[in-house]
Structure formats: C-alpha cells, structure tokens
Specification:
Elements: E1 3-7, H1 13-23, H2 31-40, E2 47-51, E3 54-67, E4 73-84, H3 93-107, E5 112-115, E6 129-130, E7 133-140, E8 156-160, H4 166-176, H5 190-193, E9 209-215, E10 218-228, E11 231-232, E12 235-236, E13 238-247, H6 250-261, E14 266-274, H7 280-283, E15 293-296, E16 299-302, H8 305-310, E17 318-325, E18 334-341, E19 344-349, E20 356-359, H9 360-367, H10 373-378, E21 382-384, H11 389-397
Parallel strand pairs: 4-5, 13-14, 17-20
Antiparallel strand pairs: 1-2, 2-3, 3-4, 5-16, 6-16, 7-14, 7-15, 8-9, 9-10, 10-13, 11-12, 17-18, 18-19, 20-21
C-alpha cells in the first residue's frame, strides 16, 4: 500500500471533513454547521493520509491557551478530528499521524498537547494521561428542595435568546478561565459552537433556552438548557437538560439552580459536565438524589517536559529529581530536576540521582492536579526511589480546585 501523509489543501477540506464524520458514523454537517466547523478549523494544522486520491485518515490541532495551576494560560495544542477509515485500520496510520503531529507541536513551541478521547485506551501509548474528570448529575427534583441560600432573592433572572446573549455570557466565562486548571480561553468562533441547536441532535428535547442572572444590572451568570417533555399516568415527568452553567459567585450559582429545579412540568435536572468539586451536591439536603457519575474528560501530554513543568506553579515547595520515560518522544527521556513553589518553577536536565521514576503519561495525569502522584504510585505507575520524595511531590503537584474541561473540541 502506497500512502501519503500530508497537509489538507483548501479544496480538499469538505471531503476531509466528511471522511471524519464517516469514520465516527455521523452524517456530515450541513449549512451553517459546516460553515462554522470550517471557520473553527485551523487548516494549516490539519492533515491526513491519502491512498492515491482517497483520504483515509484525518487529524488536526487547535492553538489553545490552557489554564494551569497558578492561573497562567499556557499554549497547548488541542488534538482533534482524529480518524482512520475502517478499510485502513491496523496499518500504522494513527501512529504515523501522532508522531508527525507531536513533532509539529514541538516545532511550534507548545509544551503541551491535550485531547478528549472517544476511545481512551488508544492514547496512553502516545503519552497522553487522563488529567481531569467530568461529574455528571441527574437530580431528582421531586425529592430535593431547590437551593435557598441567603441572597438569592436579590438575583434577577431573565430569559433571553441564547445567540443574542452570547457577548454577556462570554464575559462571564472569560472571567472564570484563570481560576480553574483545565479551562480553555476560547478561540474566535467557539462561542457560537456553544449555542448550536440542530433539531436532529436534540434527542427529544425542545429548543435551546438561556437564562441570565443579574445583580445591580450586571450579568453575573447564565445557564443554557433544554426541556425534554415527558408524561406518565401520574402526571408530567419532563427533564431539564443543562448544557452550560457559569456563575461568578455562590449566590448567583444557587439562584440559577433554584430556577432550573423549579421549571414547570419537570421532575429531574440533568447535566453532563461539571467539575468534580462542584457545589451543587453540597447545596442540596441529600446528595444521593443527585445520581452522580464520573468519567475522564481531558487528557494531557507534556511535549517538552522541562518547559511544561516550569510553566505552572506548585502548591508547596518542591525540589525533586524525576526519571522520565518517554519512548514516543525520546527528547523527553532522562532525569529532570524540578524546583518550584507558589511563585514559579524551573525544570532542567540533571545528572543527580533520580528520586521518582515515572513515564510522561503519569506526568500528564498529575500535571493539572486532578490525579495525585500518590494514587498513581498505588497503581504501580510511579516509583519512589528516595523515601519521602513521593509525599512531598504529590503535595506540590496538587491544586486547590479540581481541573475541568468545560467543553469539548
């Protein structure tokens, strides 16, 4: 088989995009959806594999800025649109694309690559580690009273057109980005992705709605949601499906949930993505009625170990020598001395004896503070070579707030 790995030419984009949807078993987007996808795709970072004139594999990247512990926004390649046609599986095409892409990320000076995974088992062998979790909730609002902390009656709520309210909602989102690791500064056009509402993707729910929360005339929070109607012999059983909810303070946050709990003709509220330290289970009287479920969301891969570890701060002082294994990107392999605290860090190669041994995948999992080095050691994935080094490093790598990826890409 003679194949060619190369960048996507402008006139090939429609076919390249359609082959991506074909691999995922999805119909190609039409009209405005297709135009927005094209606008949000970085053509110069999109490539694939061609067998003669047929595109048989796709991959791309987006030039994100990712919040890391300490609040800095670090350039990160958002790996996306990865597919291989079923006729060309198990021929090394994915591996060749991953190798090509990571070399390009390094050349661009991005110390991190991040992705979401439809099949998480695939990406560990390329050095990506699960770094953040999503909390999913399905709240039984017939058995739980709505949150009623002091001050919620002073929050004004208004139903607005989701598209018309984008600017106000984006200002709220942008203020939250530096406060939580894993959040992404949105690229141009991505705010419109948040309000796409194709009828064929509603799964029985109604149109997308938006409520904004105001205090003294300032929009300080919003929720986007849709209602899926339902009826049983005993009465209505509708479901409120929350797509996005952001708030700048606890009172506004509670006021939005009180509104969602109280929507007529519904008996439950569901939300697919919240941080694992979300306040909602602590706002209600019985968190068991929240039917919580966890799943991994964001995967992180240090592309340049030294630069990545120096880009974040550390919760407690740390001075540790790491023995890093990275067979896929051998420029990372070897010993690194990490020194840092809450004000900054440095990380450079060293000949000093190693104190912890791990692979780049474990560094990715621990990088945002979502998984502890202690837990990874308990799983046999981090090895302590000097007594006491593990506990000190695990404390330093922690984060006061859980990392969270608020939207896919």
């Amino acid at each position: 088989m003679a194949t060619e790995l190369r960048g996507v030419r402008s006139l090939e984009w429609d076919d390249w995009s359609d082959k991506l949807d074909l691999a995922f078993g999805e119909p190609p987007p039409t009209g405005a959806q297709r135009a927005l996808r094209r606008e949000c795709t970085e053509i110069d970072r999109s490539f694939g594999v061609w067998d003669d004139d047929e595109c048989v594999a796709t991959a791309g990247a987006l030039s994100f800025r990712l919040t890391v512990p300490g609040g800095s926004a670090v350039p990160a390649a958002g790996v996306t649109m990865v597919s291989v046609q079923p006729t060309h599986r198990r021929r090394g095409l994915l591996r060749s694309m991953m190798r090509h892409q990571l070399a390009d990320v390094r050349e661009r000076g991005e110390a991190l690559a991040v992705l979401t995974a439809s099949e998480p088992a695939i990406y560990g062998r390329f050095g990506y580690g699960a770094a953040a979790l999503d909390l999913r909730l399905n709240v039984d609002t017939t058995r739980l009273a709505a949150p009623e902390p002091p001050g919620v009656d002073g929050v004004r709520l208004r139903l607005v057109d989701p598209a018309a309210a984008l600017a106000d909602c984006e200002r709220v989102y942008a203020r939250l980005v530096p406060a939580r690791p894993g959040m992404l500064a949105r690229l141009p056009g991505w705010e419109r992705m948040a309000v796409q509402d194709a009828p064929e993707e509603r799964d029985g729910a109604g149109v997308l709605q938006c409520v904004v929360a105001e205090v003294d005339g300032e929009v300080r929070g919003y929720a986007r949601y849709a209602v899926k109607p339902g009826w049983e012999r005993g009465g209505p059983s509708g479901e409120v499906r929350v797509r996005h909810l952001d708030a700048l303070d606890p009172v506004v946050y509670a006021a939005l949930w009180r509104f969602l709990f109280g929507i007529d003709l519904t008996t439950s509220v569901s939300v697919r993505s919240r941080p694992v330290d979300d306040a909602l289970p602590l706002l209600v009287a019985d968190m068991r009625r929240c039917a919580m479920e966890l799943r991994e969301s964001l995967f992180v891969r240090p592309v340049e170990v030294g630069a990545a570890l120096a880009a974040r701060t550390y919760r407690t002082p740390v001075d540790v020598v790491l023995e890093v294994a990275d067979p896929f990107c051998p420029w990372n392999a070897g010993r690194w001395r990490l020194t840092g605290d809450a004000t900054g860090a440095s990380c450079a190669r060293t000949r000093d004896p190693a104190e912890l041994a791990l692979s780049v995948r474990e560094l990715g999992s621990a990088y945002l503070g979502g998984f502890t080095l202690t837990a990874l050691a308990a799983a046999g994935r981090v090895h302590e070579l000097r007594p006491g080094a593990l506990a000190a490093a695990a404390s330093a790598f922690g984060s006061d707030v859980a990392p969270w990826l608020p939207h896919g890409f």
